[in-house]
Write a structure and sequence with these properties.
Strand content: under 5%
Distance between the termini: 90 Å
Shape: elongated
Number of helices: 44
Radius of gyration: 41 Å
Low-confidence stretches: 236-253
Strand order of the largest sheet: 4-5-6-3-7
Structural class: mainly alpha
Largest sheet: 5 strands, parallel
Length: 939
């Protein structure tokens, strides 16, 4: 920019040097003309100001303004090269002090690019100018030195030495440069050259200035002569001061990794709070969860005059070495004879934080020494990390969990995704994930359980693979994830090594149980661990071993559910599978447990008193059921056939009819020569859902196949199967209008059930027969029969049949109310019966038949004069039926067939649309409240 000559340039430079502060006319005149200013200096200044404003253009005229005390140049932040230079130097020094050498090197390099020669060269050499110029020149010299110190700290000693030699020659009296040069030469393996450089600088200072080298150069000379290993550590001379007279090292800042720290704000706050309340805090958690990073991030924020001191116990193999490791960390000298006493004496009056990292392999010895130090040093605090607590009285423990996959409210991705995307951007600058890549990233985070170390290793592979490819290769995760990056805080070279470290520390019994747990999908209860426990582990109970595994952070325990749910991280599962000496036997043990579980729950899930509990257990164990059946389909298909047949009512009541039919068909194909009873039971299991949800032609085909499979019943087991078939036929025939056939089949089922002493078949047959009586016109007898059936079902513990009978009774009341001139009384009785049915099905945790009751409630709400709520309820039932995986129109088969017609008749098209929109957002509880509130109003 042409400012109009040298004098306007001086005026501009003086305003810039003022950094936005007003400058008086007199000071400006002296800056422009020196001590001998012209007589009309003020007028001349106005001319030059006008020229400057013109040079700035229309958009910048307001930058130069007149104030009451002179002129001021309003400079935007970062617009002046000198300011940019200072800012980058300060940033670099801050980063270097935090041991972030690589970004510090970048900051110093950028700072020096803003240097363009002598500062404020246009100004005359007045006192203010000389002072400002001197400050910037000195800062440049410092920036040159600190840049080379940062380069040395990154490990590039040869590159640093090449520059340091020239820098020392350019400013031979700056001892900092000589110290860095000597250190760089030593790290290059050039001890002789390092000593020669020391002699050169000593001779230079003595010959030209008559002084000896300073303390730092003298210290370096002693260390080089002693070939002290500390010279090879990453600290530079300025960050490794000598020990004071007391024998204790000055507290050094912890070395923080260069990567950003994400997703642990809550844990950082908790650590600070616990340390304020307790003198001993232990962070526990699985391998790779980030315990060490968390304590380092906490420690670097401390203003302690003493400490914090980091002790890396992962490098300590023997208990007797722990005291020496702590002594080394705190900088204590001469501890060879009695290190424990020396530690107690040295730390007794100090108030620092001692960090004991990776204690798990030395828990007992670490705990013993910690007790001793805390007792002798009343102001000392200890922060430990371990796979298990130290077990000391007064110890506060904080479990560090993997990063969450979702935010607390579930509305957004969790910090596991944030970490993965951040680390991928580090290897792919400028990368923005597509929607598809975000979905793949969620898949990767879920497969890795949000474990930070695993997530970071997966992100590192983004140099070579897309996210979709990473997700596809996670079946071989240890090969995929590769080595840990240099500079990481983890003491292990790979994720597999980190997991192996935990497993190798276990006792034989604990390790034996752990290796039997990897087939479990989605977790397992204590009973499952007892079932698969190795035969040879008689010395320790499953509970004791499981407790040990949880304590050592190898297995997690969710105590918020009953029974407690145990789970292995997916990475731990993969490791255990990889090292299991008998994976086939382990899979078989898991499959046997699945078979036993299905057999135990099969009777209850048909509707007995504990049917809700059985349904809840099977729903929770559905991933394990799938895995067990898949194993048996491949290795023992006859067992798979029996299991899927025993789960007949679970497939229906749990809303898994489609999956059940698929598995039953697969088992029938895989076991063509299985026992006759097992094949017959499997065909019956297909029939259950077909009776209610399949198309009529398909249902009839399935009934024919089942009848053929059962054949002529020759024993009680086959008679029970035949009675079940007759009951299912009766249910189906009612839905197709074959009411008399339904009545006869149900009556036969009840008779056989009575003869065999099978309450569930007897009561199921009775309720179906009584419902058919109503459809045949014998309303009073049918309703009385249903009431009696309800009482019998209650006494026999057949609560599901009691609920179904209440539903059939309600349908009868509502049908009669529809044809009655004054429907209110019958409608009230129908609503009352529906609410009782609703309570029974909810107790049984039966979502499908709860929807059937609610769908019939649509009919009831219209009769109760509440058509708008009826429209809302219908829409809600349709929505939730689709979520359960079946067609809403099929609900008409076993609930009110008139619900839709009655709503459509009672509401105008516009009101129907409004009610439908409102109902689509209703929850299960909202639907239930709509129906039960009608009971209150009608009653």
């Amino acid at each position: 920019m042409d400012l109009g000559g040298p004098l306007p340039r001086r005026l501009f430079t003086a305003l810039v040097m003022a950094k936005g502060e007003p400058v008086s006319d007199g000071r400006l005149a002296e800056a422009v003309w020196g001590p001998e200013s012209p007589s009309r200096a003020a007028a001349a200044l106005q001319v030059y100001v006008s020229r400057l404003r013109g040079a700035f253009g229309s958009g910048g005229r307001d930058l130069l303004e007149r104030t009451g005390s002179g002129y001021r140049l309003r400079v935007p932040p970062g617009a002046v090269d000198a300011d940019r230079f200072v800012q980058q130097v300060e940033r670099g020094r801050r980063l270097l002090a935090e041991d972030n050498a690589a970004p510090a090197l970048h900051a110093f390099t950028e700072a020096l690019t803003w240097w363009h020669g002598e500062p404020y060269a246009d100004l005359l050499a007045g006192p203010d100018v000389l002072a400002a110029r001197s400050r910037l020149v000195e800062l440049r010299e410092v920036a040159i030195e600190e840049r080379l110190a940062a380069r040395l700290s990154t490990g590039d000693a040869p590159g640093a030495v090449a520059e340091l030699d020239a820098a020392a020659q350019a400013a031979p009296y700056r001892e900092r440069r000589w110290a860095l040069l000597i250190l760089g030469l030593y790290r290059c393996g050039r001890q002789g050259d390092a000593l020669a450089a020391l002699r050169r600088v000593r001779a230079l200072l003595a010959g030209e200035l008559g002084v000896d080298p300073g303390p730092e150069l003298q210290r370096l000379e002693r260390l080089v002569l002693a070939q002290d290993l500390r010279l090879l550590l990453p600290e530079t001379p300025s960050t490794a001061p000598p020990a004071p007279a007391g024998g204790m090292a000055v507290a050094r800042r912890f070395r923080r990794p260069l990567s950003s720290f994400l997703g642990r704000d809550r844990e950082l706050t908790t650590v600070a709070r616990l340390l304020a309340e307790h003198r001993l805090v232990t962070l526990v958690g699985p391998a790779g969860v980030g315990k060490t990073r968390l304590v380092v991030e906490h420690a670097t924020t401390l203003p302690d005059a003493d400490g914090p001191w980091l002790v890396r116990l992962a490098d300590v193999g023997q208990p007797e070495v722990i005291a020496h490791a702590i002594a080394d960390a705190v900088g204590l000298a001469q501890v060879a004879d009695e290190p424990r006493r020396a530690l107690r004496d040295a730390l007794a009056g100090r108030a620092g934080l001692l960090v004991l990292d990776n204690c798990e392999h030395l828990v007992d010895a670490t705990a013993e020494l910690t007790i001793e130090l805390l007792a002798a040093c009343p102001m000392l605090r200890v922060l430990a990390t371990s796979r298990e607590p130290l077990g000391i009285d007064g110890e506060a423990t904080l479990t560090v969990h993997p990063l969450p996959l979702r935010s607390d409210d579930g509305s957004a991705d969790g910090s596991a995704m944030t970490l993965l995307l951040d680390r991928i951007r580090a290897v792919r600058p400028g990368w923005t994930p597509s929607d598809e890549e975000r979905a793949q990233a969620r898949q990767v985070c879920a497969a890795l359980d949000g474990l930070p170390l695993a997530v970071e290793l997966a992100a590192a592979r983004a140099r070579l693979l897309g996210l979709g490819e990473i997700a596809e290769h996670l079946h071989d995760r240890f090969t995929l994830l590769g080595p840990v990056a240099r500079g990481s805080l983890t003491p292990h070279a790979t994720l597999q090594a980190a997991i192996a470290w935990s497993v190798e520390l276990l006792s034989d019994d604990d390790r034996g149980l752990l290796l039997r747990l990897w087939p479990f999908e989605g977790g397992f209860p204590l009973e499952a661990a007892e079932s698969v426990r190795p035969v040879g582990s008689a010395g320790t109970s499953a509970l004791e071993s499981l407790s040990s595994l949880v304590t050592r952070s190898v297995v997690s325990a969710d105590t918020t559910v009953v029974p407690t749910r145990y789970r292995l991280l997916e990475t731990v599962r993969a490791y255990c599978q990889a090292i299991d000496p008998d994976p086939g036997g382990t899979r078989k043990a898991h499959a046997v447990w699945v078979r036993d579980l299905a057999a135990q729950c099969s009777a209850d899930v048909r509707g007995q008193r504990h049917g809700g509990r059985a349904l809840r257990i099977l729903d929770r164990e559905l991933p394990n059921l799938r895995a067990g059946v898949a194993h048996d389909l491949a290795h023992q298909p006859e067992h798979a056939l029996r299991t899927v047949g025993l789960l007949d009512w679970f497939w229906l009541r749990g809303g898994h009819s489609a999956e059940g039919r698929r598995l039953i068909d697969a088992a029938l194909r895989a076991a063509p020569h299985a026992a006759h009873a097992n094949r017959a039971r499997a065909y019956l299991a297909r029939v259950i859902s077909a009776a209610l949800f399949a198309d009529e032609a398909e249902a009839r085909r399935m009934f024919d196949e089942a009848r053929l499979a059962i054949g002529e019943p020759a024993d009680d087991e086959h008679r029970a199967l035949y009675a079940s078939l007759q009951y299912y036929c009766a249910m189906f025939w009612q839905t197709t209008g074959q009411v008399q056939a339904a009545h006869d089949a149900a009556d036969e089922a009840a008779t056989i059930g009575t003869r065999l002493g099978l309450d569930w078949i007897r009561i199921a047959g009775l309720r179906t027969r009584n419902a058919a009586l109503i459809r045949l016109g014998h309303v009073a007898a049918g309703e009385a029969g249903l009431i009696d059936t309800i009482e019998q079902a209650q006494q026999a513990g057949q609560l599901w049949s009691a609920g179904w009978s209440e539903l059939a009774l309600a349908l009868s009341y509502l049908d009669r109310a529809t044809a009655h001139a004054d429907p209110s009384s019958l409608a009230a009785r129908g609503i009352d019966a529906l609410c009782r049915a609703l309570a029974r099905f909810r107790h049984q945790e039966d979502s499908v038949f709860t929807l059937a009751v609610l769908y019939t409630g649509v009919h009831a709400l219209v009769l109760a004069g509440r058509p708008r709520e009826a429209g809302q309820l219908r829409a809600a039932v349709h929505h939730h039926a689709i979520q359960l995986g079946f067609r809403p129109d099929l609900l008409r088969r076993f609930s009110s067939p008139d619900s839709d017609r009655m709503v459509d008749t009672a509401l105008s098209p516009g009101d129907r649309d409004t009610a439908a929109a409102e109902g689509a957002d209703l929850s299960w509880l909202d639907m239930i409240t709509l129906l039960t509130s009608a009971r209150t109003v009608t009653g």
